[in-house]
Structure formats: C-alpha cells, structure tokens
Amino acid sequence: MLREKINILIEKFTEAWTACMICMVQGDLSVLTLNHAYTASHTGLIAGIALVSASFLPYKNVWIGIFLTGVFTSIADIMVHPSHFGTEFTESIVTGIGAMGLAILFHKVLRKQIPTKSQNNP
Q1: Is the dihedral of CA 81, 84, 88, 93 positive or negative?
Q2: Are 86 and 26 in contact (CB under 8 A)?
Q3: What's this model's pTM, rounded to 2 decimal places?
Q4: What is the tens place of the pLDDT at every residue in 77-97?
Q5: What phi and psi, each to the nearest 5 degrees, are found at residue 11?
Q6: In contact, 98 and 22? CB cutoff 8 Å
Q7: 58 to each of 10, 55, 92, 117, how far by Cα in Å?
Q8: Where in the chain are the domains?
Q9: What are all long-range contacts of 55-60, with beta carbons under 8 Å and residues at least 24 apart?
C-alpha cells in the first residue's frame, strides 16, 4: 500500500509540476529558471499530497481522479504564487486544465506500457 501511495505522489507531482512550469512561462520554455522549477515543485508537492489523501476515498472512476488532479493543482497553484497572466485565477485554472491533460495522457499512454500483475500471470 505504501508503494502505491508513493507512486501516486510521484505521478501527480509530475503532472502538476510540468503543467505549472509551462504555464508560469506562458509556454516560452527558453525563459525557464531554477526559480520556476522551485516554485513549480511547491505546486506539485501540494497537489501530490492532496491527491494521495484523496486516494483513500472509495471512488473507482478514473475520470474522477483526473478531475481531482486538475482541481487540486489549481488550488495548489493559487496557494503558491500569484497569476502571471490574465485575472487573479486565470493561470491556476489553465494550470489545472494542463494537469488534467497530462493525467489523461499518462493514463492512456503510459499505463499501457507498464505490465500489471494480472498481465504477468496466465
């Protein structure tokens, strides 16, 4: 169970961190700095911990998990830093949507490449 929760934390941290990094620089990856990575790591860690906590809830639908990824990433982004574009909440909403997109990508692409125990046993 601990290994499963650590895997959730790593996956959700990665989704939130990547979405935050891209949104902070408004897609211009040439201006990324270590300060951006540090700030995005706060967003990723808060979102990851929130999603590990949510993993104890009894939902089975993967789409609820993807939706929660976006919601918790948006909330974490609001908590960590002010918006760099648009209104007060624009960047955090875009970051949440980006994290949801990455969660869908991870679910559809990467999970097919990771063999499960049931696939190993005939």
Answers
A1: negative
A2: no
A3: 0.84
A4: 999 988 878 888 999 999 999
A5: -65, -45
A6: yes
A7: 21, 8, 27, 22
A8: 2-111
A9: 55/4, 55/5, 55/8
